[in-house]
Amino acid sequence: xxxxxxxxxxxxxxxxxxxxxxxxxxxxxxxxxxxxxxxxxxxxxxxxxxxxxxxxxxxxxxxxxxxxxxxxxxxxxxxxxxxxxxxxxxxxxxxxxxxxxxxxxxxxxxxxxxxxxxxxxxxxxxxxxxxxxxxxxxxxxxxxxxxxxxxxxxxxxxxxxxxxxxxxxxxxxxxxxxxxxxxxxxxxxxxxxxxxxxxxxxxxxxxxxxxxxxxxxxxxxxxxxxxxxxxxxxxxxxxxxxxxxxxxxxxxxxxxxxxxxxxxxxxxxxxxxxxx
Length: 276
What we know:
The chain has a domain at 43-155. It is 50% helix and 0% strand. The chain contains 14 helices and no strands. It has helices at 5-15, 18-28, 33-41, 65-78, 89-95, 128-136, 142-155, 158-163, 171-177, 186-203, 209-212, 222-226, 231-240, 259-272. Helix 4 (65-78) packs across helix 6 (128-136), helix 6 (128-136) runs antiparallel to helix 7 and helix 6 (128-136) packs across helix 9. The mean pLDDT is 97.
């Protein structure tokens, strides 16, 4: 069943946030990267952090770690160049670190709409993915990397990585352990991460299939090569048959605010694997 690209485009332009519409235009319509960067900078605060509901689950205008984590994940996955977007981000992250390397969230996040799963913490407290992707964009300071390495060794082990049962949540280990070097036990941590992604992918229900392509981003990627022969093709077939009547793909929680970016990610995966 072929993808109805026109319907997907119409859905993103009808239902997506301005950031998502600009991202779609840059990825699929050869639109301006400068304009996309300008829109992203509208979510940036004077303290060099990001807020203003860039990540849909926390609506507070104040800078918070989840907003930066989300932005970095999108940039990594889409191959978006950083430009000046990340200027000052590493210093902002370090300013939010507790002594153990975990991250603080501004108390004001609870004064604005946020999803219930962030209510207790107020937002993301884990620094691993954020710092890993700052490393990838050559924006991490040595002190920030050192603090996060200590946090990671205290909070991750091969056993804890393998205990993860949710494919989406593998991003913490994937991002960090494949961005750093010179870490005790790194080979074992990386292998556990690969094994966990494979195990979670093989056990994932159909509504989680799109998450796989955050890790198996291209046919020659490490995680795509680690999966059994034919598995990626079966997942792509499922994506091809799950486009909704309105043109979009559903996210795994069936939350409408996530449908536009899920649609963008599915289209990107299908294009990278030659199905679009």
